[in-house]
Design brief:
5-stranded parallel β-sheet; binds ligand NA7; 9-stranded mixed β-sheet; about 525 residues
């Protein structure tokens, strides 16, 4: 039987994949989206742990490509919870009739570039097919990191990972529960699980900074105001270094008086969530300024947590923001409950998982449920877990062994006609993801349309431009405090991964750069290279 052929294969039906399908199909291309899960949503399908919600205000964490959509949709809360985001994505899919071109329960397991035919040979869990282009819309935080604790396979209780949460209801009532990890996911989940469980043990390796979300019902006046000037409001996103609207970023902490600084930190602490880091322009640039913000947050933690010893354990020491900042609804307060115990893994390392629970330090914990909130192989994991082979059969995993290199986070040398949405080298995780992925979807779609108009078949990045680009990514990061601690921004959470800083910091210069590249007929990319 002849293989199915299409113009574009999109991998993943999350925010990026859905918009790619709409955009490319509207431009007249044949497109199929392959999705491993049985439904759409990507990150928002998999991360359905208790308390999961976005930590960028929903009025900004939403599509802007369609004015009617952004006018019609009403978010019920400032920061929407996972079920509502999933509902929104389903609404978008129905509104633009997307589901008919998404093949669910279908995993892309391999993709090989056929140099003779200039086609991608795609192997899914169900069939082989051919496509001119392949776009990885696989998300930045979608390949769960599951530490290989000794004895884990023998554990007989309920084992869960926050990034792979089951669709069935999970009820912890009357259960003894342990959660390993204290990143964003755990920080969102702990207050909710603590309300349910008989007892919750929290195993912490590194304390984390978190800002209160002060989440609540959508302020309808604010919503009406934003909707009356949505394009202008969105423009504020694009003008901000992190792609988040409404941050004042002129003044410097090191130049402010102590009282004034405290007052301003307080206002941002109360109202801005992640935007706390935008209180002053120098917080992520200057170690002294950063320490001022860190001291402020440490003090807040001390105020919130009643037991001074626990407060001390929950107090992060490192540069604030160099690990992804968290936003919570009652995280530190949860440790004031009698049914929550914090265990410091530095003094009580996990020795092994047992059939009944786990052993850490000298204690054995008998558990009904064990939750791994241990994060992701961020930014590259979802791509390298697929066997992708480019020119000369080179494997992407091997090519990225010593560090992921990409031109603009969009194209990779040796991998023609393969695009990544929010790939390494783009602002991605250091920006508001939704506008960032929309920017990429439009760039990729426009590029493929331009190729059709200009009769080009094959586009690829070169080693030279991507080397230069990744040097710039690191030079920019060197001007900040982002490299000053271990984080998934620099691969430190995965042992075998190259320790390299991957996101480009600065939405406005990045946007300007990729726009210019496109205007100059995709400068830096090579078309129809002959061997
Ligand atoms: P994160 O932020 O990577 O957090 C993972 C947590 O798990 C973090 O506290 C880690 O400690 C801890 N961890 C990871 N491996 C281990 C092992 N082996 N033992 C003990 N503890 C471990 O992932 P999240 O899912 O919380 O958040 C991901 C992003 O999703 C988030 O930033 C938002 O953008 C949304 P560590 O700090 O490495 O010492």
């Amino acid at each position: 039987m002849p293989l199915r052929k299409m113009d574009v294969v999109v991998v993943g039906a999350g925010f990026s994949g859905l918009y790619l399908l709409h955009k490319l199909r509207s431009a007249g291309f044949s497109v199929t989206v392959f999705e491993k899960a049985d439904q759409l949503g990507g990150t928002w399908h998999w991360n359905r742990y208790p308390g999961a919600r976005c930590d960028i205000p929903s009025l900004q964490y939403s599509y802007q490509f369609d004015e009617d959509l952004q006018q019609d949709w009403n978010w019920t809360e400032k920061y929407s919870a996972q079920p509502e985001i999933l509902e929104y994505l389903n609404h978008v899919a129905d509104r633009f009739d997307l589901k008919k071109d998404i093949e669910f329960n279908t995993e892309v397991v391999a993709a090989k570039f056929n140099e003779e035919k200039s086609l991608w040979q795609i192997k899914t869990s169900k069939e082989e097919l051919e496509s001119k282009f392949c776009v990885m819309a696989t998300g930045c935080l979608s390949a769960p990191n599951t530490p290989d604790f000794e004895g884990m396979k023998d554990y007989e209780g309920q084992l869960l990972h926050t990034g792979k949460w089951p669709q069935r209801p999970v009820d912890f009532t009357d259960e003894t529960v342990a959660i390993i990890g204290t990143g964003s996911s755990s920080i969102q989940a702990i207050p909710v699980i603590a309300e349910q469980a008989k007892h919750l043990y929290v195993f912490q390796r590194t304390a984390n900074y978190s800002i209160p979300s002060n989440n609540g019902p959508m302020n309808t006046q604010e919503e009406a105001d934003v909707k009356s000037r949505y394009p202008e409001f969105r423009k504020e996103n694009w003008d901000n270094g992190f792609g988040i609207a409404g941050l004042e970023i002129e003044a410097l902490a090191v130049e402010a008086g102590e009282e004034e600084r405290k007052e301003k930190f307080n206002v941002h602490w109360e109202n801005e969530g992640l935007g706390f880091l935008g209180t002053y322009a120098d917080l992520m640039l200057d170690k002294d300024a950063n320490e001022m913000a860190a001291v402020f947050v440490r003090e807040k933690i001390r105020e919130k947590v009643k037991d001074p010893e626990i407060a001390e354990l929950l107090r992060p020491e490192y540069t604030i923001g160099c690990k992804r900042l968290c936003v919570d609804s009652g995280y530190f307060e949860a440790f004031n409950r009698d049914n929550v115990t914090l265990i410091d893994l530095n003094t009580n390392p996990i020795a092994r998982i047992t059939p009944e629970g786990l052993v850490a330090g000298k204690e054995e914990y008998s558990l009904d449920s064990l939750i791994l909130a241990t994060g992701f192989d961020a930014m590259t994991g979802a791509v390298t877990r697929i066997d992708i082979r480019g020119r000369g059969g080179v494997s992407l995993k091997d090519q990225w062994k010593n560090g992921a290199k990409s031109y603009l986070g969009l194209g990779i040398s040796n991998f023609p006609n393969l695009f990544t949405v929010t790939g390494p080298g783009s602002p991605s995780v250091l920006s508001n993801m939704v506008p960032s992925l929309e920017l990429h979807v439009e760039w990729i779609s426009n590029c493929i349309e331009w190729m059709r108009e200009n009769k080009k078949s094959v586009i690829e990045s070169t080693k030279t431009v991507e080397d230069e680009w990744m040097i710039l990514v690191n030079e920019v990061a060197d001007q900040t405090v982002y490299k000053s601690c271990k984080s998934w921004y620099n691969g430190s959470n995965i042992d075998e991964k190259a320790k390299e800083f991957l996101p480009f910091i600065g939405v406005p210069p990045y946007t300007e750069k990729i726009t210019q590249v496109a205007e100059q007929n995709y400068q830096g990319f090579v078309f129809d290279k002959t061997n």
